[in-house]
Every structure is written in C-alpha cells, then in structure tokens.
Amino acid sequence: MAMHGMRGLSVFISDVRNCQNKEQERLRVDKELGNIRTRFKNEKGLTPYEKKKYVWKMLYIYMLGYDVDFGHMEAVSLISAPKYPEKQVGYIVTSCLLNENHDFLRLAINTVRNDIIGRNETFQCLALTMVGNIGGREFAESLAPDVQKLLLSSSCRPLVRKKAALCLLRLYRKNPDVVNVDGWADRMSQLLDERDLGVLTSSMSLLVALVSNNHEAYWTCLPKCVKILERLARNQDVPQEYTYYGIPSPWLQVKTMRALQYFPTIEDPNTRRTLFEVLQRILMGTDVVKNVNKNNASHAVLFEALALVMHLDAEKEMMSQCVALLGKFIAVREPNIRYLGLENMTRMLMVTDVQDIIKRHQAQIITSLKDPDISIRRRALDLLYGMCDVTNAKDIVEELLQYLSTADFVMREELSLKAAILAEKFAPDLSWYVDVILQLIDKAGDFISDDIWFRVVQFVTNNEDLQPYAAAKVKEYLDKPAVHETMVKVSAYILGEYSHLLGRRPGCSPKEIFSSIHEKLPTVSTTTIPILLSAYAKILMHSQPPDQELQNQIWAIFNKYESCIDAEIQQRAVEYFALSQKGAALMDILAEMPKFPERQSALIKKAEDAEVDSAEQSAIKLRAQQQTSNALVVTDQLPANGAPPPVPVGPLTLVKVPSMTSDEDHRSTDQALTHENGTLSKVDPQPPSADLLGDLLGPLAIEGPPGATVQSEHNPVSGLEGGPDAVDGSAIVPIEEQTNTVQPIGNIAERFHALCLKDSGVLYEDPYIQIGIKAEWRAHHGRLVLFLGNKNTAPLGSVQALILPPAHLKMELSLVPDTIPPRAQVQCPLEVVNLRPSRDVAVLDFSYKFATNMVNVKLRLPALLNKFLQPIPVSAEEFFPQWRSLSGPPLKLQEVVRGVRPMPLPEMANLLNSFRLMICPGLDPNPNNLVASTTFYSESTRAMLCLVRIETDPADRTQLRMTLASGDPTLTFELKEFIKEQLVSIPIAPRTPTAVAPPAPPAAQPTPEIPANDPAALLAGLL
Amino acid sequence: MGIRFILMVNKQGQTRLAQYYEWLTLEERRALEGEIVRKCLARTEQQCSFVEHRNYKIVYRRYASLFFLVGVDNDENELAILEFIHLLVETMDRHFGNVCELDIMFHLEKAHFMLEEMVMNGSVVETSKTNILTPIQLMDKAS
Fold first, then answer.
1. Do B55 and A615 touch (CB under 8 A)?
2. Contact state of A96 with B19 under an 8 Å Cβ cutoff
3. For the range A10-19, what are the long-range contacts, defined as Cβ-Cβ under 8 Å and sequence gap of 24 or more?
4. For the packed helices A137-152 and A109-117, what is the interaxial angle rounded to 10 degrees?
5. Which residues of A touch B125 (CB under 8 A)?
6. In chain B, which residue's Cα lies nearest the Cα of A292?
7. CB of A603 within 8 Å of any CB in chain B?
8. Residue B26 is nearest to which of A65, A197, A251, comparing CB atoms?
9. Which residues 112-171 of A have a C-beta within 8 angstroms of B?
10. Which domain holds residue B61?
11. What would be one Gene Ontology cellular-component term for the protein (chain B) (predicted)?
C-alpha cells in the first residue's frame, strides 16, 4: 500500500500537524527541506521509493505555503521512471510545482511523447493529463498530431480518449493553429456520436472552446448537441454510473447547453423544435424536492436551460415563463436559488421585451438589497442598477440612498457611484439630481470620489435655472453641525458662484453666506482652503456696494494666508488680495464661470473601468450597449449662431474655457476644475496695471463671439502677451465649431455595413441622439424597430423621420413623435414588404432640432436584398436536376468577376454565409469552388430557390467565375450583382487582372487546375 | 468557463489540499488563500454558497470541519460546481469509507489521484465514481 510505503511522509505530516505555532512549523519544515536537499545531493544512493517520498514531501511543503526552490529536477526525472508508481508521482508533482515555461519541462518533452505514443494505456493517461494541465506552446507544436490521433482512434479505450480531448483543448488554447478548422469540424462532429459519457463530457468542453472562437465552422455539431441533450433529458441509454441522484449527468447537460449558446441561431426547424421541446420539459418539469443534492443538480440544469432560452430569443410566451420562474426564485428562502434568481434576472435584462415584466418584481428585489448575505445584496444592487430607467429611477435611487446609511463599508463606494450614475442618467428633473448627489455626499462623503462632485458643479454651471436652487440647497447642508469636507468644497464653490442669486432670502446676505462657509475653515484640509478663498473673493465681489466690515474680514484672511506654506493657498491669497483692491475691475475678473463644454460623464467611464475588477456580470456592459444614454452629456445651452448669451454679458472671466472635447477621458474633469482654479497664476503677482489686465482679459473674453472675433480682438495685444493667449484663443475655436455643426460619432458607412450582416445595432449616433435598429425578417416581410434615444437632459424637438422607399419595397413607418423627452428612448416600428427582387436601398431622412441647431441626416436602411434570403441546404439529388433545368440566360447567368478583394476560401464561405447563402460542401469536387443555395422571398416571386457556384483560382485570388441560377431572370441578375458588389466592395489594386486573358482561367498557370482536375471538369461538363 | 482552483481548508484555515489550474506564484497563492478563507469561513449556514472575489466566484461547501472551495470563472454554472464538490466528496467517501479531514491529510497523494481523474485543465473529465476510482484500485492491488 502506498500508505505503508511512505511512512516517512506520514510521520512528517503528523509532525507538522502537531506543531503548536507557525514558528515551530517553520522550523520543522526547514529541517525537512535541509534533509531532502542533502539526500538529493548524492542522488545515486536514492532508491526510486525514497525519491518518490521526498517529492511528495516537497509538494506537501509547497502546499503549506513554503517556497521549494530545489528538487524540481528530481520530480521531473521521475517521469522517465519505468515503473508506474514513480512515473505517476513524477507527472502529478511536476504539474503542481512547475509552470509551463519551466526549462525542465522542455527537457521532458521527449519522454512525455514516448509515453503518449506508447502502448501502455496508464502511461498515456498520465502523460496526457500532465500536458493537459501545464503543456505550453512547444508541447502544442510537437504533440498535437499524436493527441488528435488518440482522440479519434477507434482502438483506444475511452479512458485514454477522454483525456486526449482535454489535452487537445489545452494545446489548442496555447496555439489555435494546431487544430485545422477545415478538417477538424467533421471530426468534432463525429466525436459527438460517441456513446461513452466520459468521452462526451470532455469532448463537449473541447467543443465549447472551439465554437466560442468560430461557430460557423462547427455548425454540423449543432444538431448533434441537441441529440445528446435529448438523450440525456429523456434518460435514454444513460448508465447508472452517470446518473446523479436520478438526473442523467447534470454536468454534461449543462455543458451541452453551454455549447449551444455559442451558435447564434438554429436554422433547421426540426432541430429547433426538438430543442424547444427539451427546454420546455426542463422549464416545466423541474420540481423542488427534499433532497438537497438532487435539487441542486436539477436546478443547475434548469438555470442553464434558462440561459439557453434567453439566448435563443424564444417566443414571448416562453420568455415570460422564464421571468415568472425567476420571479419565483428570487422570493424563495433557499439562499442559493435566491442568489441565482437575481443573477439570471440581471442577465435577462438584455432581452428587451421582458423588461416590463421584470419591473413587476421591483419590490422583491429591493427586499433583497437588505438581505443578510452580502453576495445576495450585491446581485440585487446589480439588478436594480441594470433595470433602472426613466420610469423607476426615482424609486430605485431613493432606495439606494436609504440603504446607503446602513450598507457595509465594502459596498458603499460601489453603491454611491451607481446611485450617482443612475441619478445622472435618468433624472426626471435636474433639481432632483442635485438633491440626490447632495444626499450622497451627506451620507457617504468618504466614498464620494471627486468625479461625482465635479459633475454636479458642471450641471449647475450649465443650467441657470438650477443655480439658485442649488445655492439654497447647499446653504442648508452647510448650516448643519457636522459637514463632510466634500460637502464644504461643493458648497463653497456653488455659493461663491451663485449665492448672490439667493437675493434677499433670510440668512443669505453676503455676510451670512461668508460666515457659514468660514465657520468650516478650521475643519478642512489644505486642498479645500483654496476653494474657500476663491469663494470669499467672489462673495466680496458680489457685495456691492462693498460692505466695509465684510471686506476687512476677508482681507484679513487673505493677509493671513499670504505667508501660508502651501504654495497654492499663498498664491491665491496674494492675488485675491491684490485684485480685490482694484474695485470695479474685480467684477470683471471674478465673473461667473463659463459653461463647460459637453463631455462624456467621467462616472460612466469609471463604472465601465471598474467592471473588470468588481466581479460583475456583463449586464452593465450589455445594458450600456443597449441603452442610448451611454454617452452622457451635459445639456449645453451655449448659444449657437451668435445668439446673445443668457448670463453675463460683460462676460469677462479670468478663466480658460476648458478646451477638452467630449471624447476626452475622464481626467478632463479633473483638469477642468484645476484649470479654473489654477489660472489665476497667470496674473502677474506684482500690482498689475489696468492696461495689462485689460490685455490679459481681452482675448479671453470670448464666451459668446465666434472665433473670428477672438482673433481680431486678440491681434492688437499679441505683441504684449503673445504666447499663452494665442493658445487660449485657438483652444476655444473647436468648441465653437462643435456647437454649430453636429458631428456624427463613428462612421456611418461602417455602421450601415455592419447592419447589413446583423439584425440589431446602432445606425447613427451623434452627441445628441442615437438611432438604434432591431430587425426581424420572415419570408418577404420585415419588421424593423427604430430606437430613437435622446442622450441629453433637454428635449429634442422637431423630430422628423421620413422613409424614402425604393420601388420594390413597401414600407410603413409608425408615427414618430415630434419631441423626444430628455434621456428617453422612443421606439418606432417600421413594416417592410418586399415586392420583387432589387438591389435598391431604402433611405431614412431624419431631422431634429437641438437648441438652435437643426440637424438633418440621410441614412441608408439595412433592408437589403440579402435580408429576404433564407439559407437552405440542398443535397446533390436536389441540386443537379435543378441546376440542369435552369439552362443558360436569362435564368442562369455567368460572369467572370475581376478585382475581387483577395481572401482565402473559408473567409469567402463565411462572407456568403453571413449574407444568408448556405454553402453546400461536397457538391463540387473541386476544393477551390464553392456551391451555395438559398431561398429568396418576395411578393412577386414567392419563395424561390437560388443556386450559386463560384469558381476561384488559387493562383489569382483577385478573380473568379460566378454562376447564378434561379427561376426568375430579374432575381438571377440582381443577386449576381449583389454578390459581386460584396466581393469587390473594397477594390484593391484594380490593375492586377489586366495581364489575365478573357473568360477562361489563364492557361499557362503553374497549376493547370481546371483541365487536370478531373472531377471538376466532370462537374463543369454537367453544369 | 472553467475551474481555476480547488482548495480544501479546515475550519482553522489550514490548507489541506490545493490544486490550481492556472499558474500563480507562491505569494499570489498565499494571498489568495488568505483572502478567500477569511471571506468564506466567516459565513453562516443561512447564507448562499457563492462568494464573489476579485474577478471570479468561489463556490464552496462545508463538510464537518472541512471546507471545499472551488474558484470558477464568472459565467460558470454555480450549482453544477456545487454538486461537483459533492460528487468529489462521495467519491472520496467510497474509497476511504467515511472520509474525514485526516484521510485527506494523510493520503494527500490519493486525494490528488482522484482529482486528477475528475478534473483536467479546469474542466470536468469524469463523473462516474467507478471510472474515477479504477486506476487507484488497480494501483492498490499492485502494491
């Protein structure tokens, strides 16, 4: 017995166990390590048994967390031992101790290979397992063919083959090229015919990895997976050993359903029906039972089935069934099920149609936010965050705020960030937004990042209506006895800017405002004092005529800080003091801050960044992609086209307008605020002459006037103040331009092309609006939904959408509302009927008005010919008679196409596939040719079969011969032209084919392919 | 999708078995095990069996004094892993008969052999207890 054989190991383990403390343990371990080291030094005297014993001890010590930096060679050398027990130890310990790049591992590669190709099954298993666990690139390159052979070998027993499957998975991950997609797809599909469930279990893991990279190549595996699932679900031919608490291998069921989730759709109606029957049974037939293990196993299967149903975009009825189930789960007592219910409901949010049903469970989800288990609370928070929209934002955010006071510290930061984002995204009105952020700062000041309060300042600055409200609010908070420093910052800033708007309200005289701020000064840190000093200067400026007492008080403070050790404070104190003695000039210098340019919310960005770390599901990301409100922008009411600016007319601000544009990263916020605080340093510290000040201010006085004015004003002073001002002047210009013409975000043409291949995505986006599209096609009917999303906090007006349909399409757009409310999304269904084949494109003429900007765009709609195609597999028996019966023009057309974008054959096959042409492999014996079939639907042609054959020339990929056949001459022509356009869409070097002679492929090719290749010639004869 | 590591830790927080399917340095392992143990061992019976940690999930189960902790990718099926732990325990139980912490501690090699038969490269290879135990029984007979 192994136990007997390794008494020394047991003694050592027992010694370690008896150690009273960590120190004793270390001593015992060190002693043992010394012992092993000396024994290994004169290796000759060691018996294989001793070696084995010492290597196990090493592994044990390593597991305890001690470094074992020697003896690796001995472990590896055991691999080549002739006897099983030693070899086994060698393999196992090596794979625990070494990483894949270890040099010793390379030395062993030959021994390992010999074991793999040898006759001894048990050795094969050991070697495959180790390579499967730690094999690196070199192993991949030298062992992959051998491993593949074992996996496919009919003489190999399952126990070897199952390990070969996972070993190949490792090698594939290390180097994907070791699996040749073309050849392997069929083999993979054959593998799935396996009866042995062990081999199936590991093959399924391999398949998951393969399809996750390239599902198209493995489409033949899809029906096989459904068959396996059916076999398991119906418990047919499942050995007792693979039945777990009465459930046929739940692990294989789960894995199979996982593999199915990598195929975008299931085209074949029979396969689809079978699968849905199985899924329906799982959904309906999973009952809660007493036995915990049985219950877990059946629910593991159930949750995977739910995920698959969601993925398959099942009928609404089945979806509602799923949500109902999840709704039940989130209310049960069993915590695991509750957790998974919430997690899966969050995943379900990406299915658009069910969001309303999910909202019905809001109360229950909010209860889970108070669950005693943090895992569950996290899920609930995530779900609430994901399901929040304009309709429920108020409720949800208020719940989050309430929860904030009692939440664990570990969750507060996440919680407050999420609340801030939601408040910003879905604020029904901006005063509510201000309320929320101030409450956040009040309740969880320590967890409020600067980004959050910067953002509220930006909102207030850019919205005049908000300014008195915000000023009054912060004053209330400031008057509370204990105030968080962040609150002091934001209050001081806002009161400095806007307290004069509070007018004659009680307690709001400049003096009173000053003293409420100043009261906090002793409690704040040096980073806050500069903000307070700015506020004082501003308050002083607003108290006109100057209140002598207040002035003296503030001057005294400036005087005091003139000698402050902190440079920033000192400088401000000196400068403000000097400036405030300028009297009226102070007005100009300290005028209100200009508006911030539009930019993306730093918070959203932060949330996106944090996602990787915070172990969240991709729900947020998915949501962000779906929702239009992703790129948040501040309502910018900067007057365009020279309309008079609403606020300060003598708009002289000693502030550089932050010149960053919306796409700058979130640091811009930071910089923005530092800029405005920091720019005073531009003022000459010596008592500045009035002239100099004037000069300084001249070029900066540009809130309203366009760039040209700036330039002209700037010129006279350029001699004096050259450099920096020139920079400032030009920095303003791009912002001005931006407000005049709206630039689309992303490339419109690229978006259109992407939508030609898929059925949902973004059609158009600019800083104000995002237009998304989702389409469903059934025969010659299509139903598109346009999602018009307003990204702003202000409504978009004069919205108009006009469809310009080509003659062959009948299109009907439902009513588009004239205005889109702030942050809202409007859905407009568009019905399409295809009358006859044509390549013409429908156009959407879309316009809207934002502030004074009228925006008009004309967008091509992805209702193309290929959307009315339905791929259909055709067997040889069907194909050839059809092909022959359609003889010659106009039903069958042939053309040599030149200037084709060169691409390898599989890529071309993929391209055709993506246009819904089904490649029929094996019909054309020439491997350089592709044959495809599809059905075209239109009102005039009804369902009509189209056959395509493309003959490529491996020597010259820029040309090919294409033959098209269908029962309708127009269809044949249009489809031919359509495919041609796709193949030559990006013409590269159009001159290449000039050397090539007319129709027939060049005769003098190094590979005389057409004439020599008999089967192809045969087929050509047939065709 | 996959298993990143399997840990067996007793209620004092001592590691009894550790098998990683991705390479971590010793320092990383020590830190990771410390964090996980602190997080999971403090949880009560009424709380769920899943804990989110860094960018993956821990699925865990307690048997008497021993915790089985399995680190998995975020999209792994949690309940399937939870029952896989139980399958592992049942397999050990079949071999040792009334398996306890000491069996695993003193037969570290056997525990490793069993795991080798059940998980490879982070994926489940075998779920039939008979198939898992065959090689070990053969070896016992041979020696």
1. yes
2. yes
3. A10/B106, A12/A57, A12/A60, A13/A60, A13/B105, A13/B106, A13/B108, A14/B106, A16/A60, A16/A64, A17/B105
4. 0
5. 162-163, 166, 198, 201-202
6. B83
7. no
8. A65
9. 122, 125, 129, 132-134, 159, 162-163, 166-167, 169-170
10. 3-142
11. AP-4 adaptor complex
Separation CA A784–CA A781 (nearest Å): 10
In chain B, the number of structural domains is 1
Q: What is the pLDDT along chain B (143 residues), one digit of tens a residue?
A: 589 999 999 998 899 999 999 999 999 999 999 999 999 999 998 899 999 988 889 999 999 999 999 999 988 999 999 999 999 999 999 999 989 999 999 998 899 999 999 999 999 999 999 999 998 888 888 76
Give the CB-side neighbour count of residue A228, counting CA atoms within 13 A.
32
A99: nearest CA in chain B?
B23
CA–CA separation, A1010 vs A951, rounded Å?
Answer: 10
Give the global pTM. 0.65
The residues with which A961 forms a beta bridge, in sequence order, are A896, A951
Looking at domain A866-983, its CATH class is alpha beta
Q: Do A297 and B83 touch (CB under 8 A)?
A: yes
Distance linking the first and last C-alpha atoms of chain B:
38
User: Of A17, A84, A92, which has the smallest distance from its Cβ to B116's Cβ?
Assistant: A92
The CATH number given to whatever domain includes residue B48 is: 3.30.450.60
Cβ–Cβ below 8 Å for B50 and A339: yes
Nearest CA in chain B to A128: B120
Cβ count within 10 A of residue A110:
11
CA distance to A181, A596, A719, A729, per residue, from A725 (Å): 62, 19, 11, 6
A residues 956..985 contacting B (CB < 8 A): none
DSSP per-residue string spanning B105-123 = HHTHHHHHHHHHHHEETTE
Spatial separation of the C-alpha atoms in residues A599 and A608, rounded to whole Å: 16
For chain A, 1023 residues long, the average pLDDT of each consecutive 10-residue run is: 65 91 93 91 80 91 91 89 89 90 87 92 94 91 92 92 95 90 88 94 95 89 95 93 95 96 89 94 89 95 94 83 91 93 91 83 92 92 91 91 84 88 86 92 86 87 88 91 91 90 82 89 90 90 81 90 90 88 72 71 63 35 35 32 34 31 38 39 36 33 34 39 36 35 81 84 87 86 87 80 86 84 80 89 87 83 89 82 83 86 83 85 82 89 88 84 89 88 59 39 40 41 42
**A748-863 CATH choice from 3.40.1280.10, 2.60.40.1230, 3.40.50.1860, 2.40.50.140:** 2.60.40.1230
Give B-chain residues touching A251 at CB under 8 angstroms: 80, 84, 124, 127
Cα dihedral A82/A85/A87/A88 (nearest 10): 150
Q: At what angle do helices A510-518 and A485-498 cross, to 10 degrees?
A: 160
HSE, CB side, 13 Å, CA atoms: give it for residue A756. Answer: 21
Interface test with A, best of B47, B83, B104 (most A CBs within 10 A): B83
* Of residues A935, A933, A940, A938, the one with CA closest to residue A963: A933
Q: What is the interface pTM, i.e. ipTM, of the complex?
A: 0.97
- All residues of chain B having their beta carbon less than 8 Å from the beta carbon of residue A341 are none
Instruction: Kindly identify which residue of chain B lies nearest to residue A169, measuring between CA atoms.
Output: B121
Q: What is the CA radius of gyration of chain A?
A: 36
